[in-house]
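Q:
Just now I want nothing more than another pair of eyes on a protein record. Here is the record:
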Amino acid sequence: MRIILYKSHLDGPISGADETLVTYAAQLQKAGESVSVLLMYLHAEEDQYYQRLLESDVPVSWIASNLAQNSMGAGRKLAALMFRSFPGSKSFVRRKTQRVLSAMANSYYQDCRKFLRREKPDVVHVMTPNAGATVMIRAAHDTQVPVIYQELGIPYHPPEFDYYNQFTSVLPLCSEVAALSPRLIKDCRDKLPSCRSLSVLPIMSQEFLNGDGHAPYHRDGKITFGFAARIEKLKGPLVLIEALGLACGQESNIFVNFAGDGSQRHNIAARVKALNVAGHYRYHGVYTHPEECRVFMNSLDIFVMPSFTEGTPNSVVEAMACGKPIIAAAVGGIPDMIGDDAGLLVAPGDAKELASAMLRLARDSELRKRMGIAARERYREFFSPNVVMPLMLGIYRRVVSNGHSREIRANGKLHPWTCA
């Protein structure tokens, strides 16, 4: 079976969609499947995700010219500058940008068809709802190649991103639409009624990300919370900093490590100084390789994800793989991830509730231990390659055989979310 994983471009430096693409591709390659990655626009040679694909011996192809790649990069920088200089222009700039991106992508429709006719894949697996994905789905359908679209978040969310209005027009052309968890498949059923078939396909973390499952030992009683994501408003980093200020008012042994980058990084640095907790905050930077991620996660006692909107965050899976208890906002598919025993759920944007959860775990080492063990077990049951790969291959084979293939089991068992 020849599989193409498609994404319009690599978003780096910390992109959940890129992480999912690379992990899927690497694990399919490791399993001996014929897999390649196709991009509409090739990213920079030094991009960490591109480099990891090369390290995994996954072939990477692209449709557009280098000139288009340079134009995309220049356009992103200009849009970012406009956002920073004129925050009120975001909606206007997004509308104008969407039109330009749609025109650019449409100009490559015939090139996409030629590529698919030449490569003759059995299935195309598309990620991220944008103009390039719209064109690729049309091209695959018109060349009679089955398409799976995977929704990595919540359809039509956040509301200010209006690309779904155009993208949903091609979803009826897909053989299957996959969501990341049972809660998210319900969102897809409610918001994407034109889809022909829906299934669950979780994310996974690579096996060598597994930690030892033990919390770091601190003679001074220090408890370290960790955050790893884009440092943007929707990920809730400032909510975590406000919670840190509240928690440190009651316990002086609480610290927070941040990994990632984004527009709010400097705001956070200013806020920790204003709250007089700068000594309890450490900016780790951006990790660029799974081994660096594992080291970061194993340095923590608890992982925190205070997002306002999510699918099923890769960083939560990575923390669970390392046996870390989770504190997270009850949004998207996160409640499916941690269940009732692997962590604590809080309301999005509620710094007081987050601080209370941080204090509860900081003060109870036995609870941290129990939740860490449960998190590791949930990783193994729901997100390890051993259980996700059979589910993924089963979906591919079912789509290729037009629904006449049986589900593939891992160790004689179906994935727990198969029934969704």
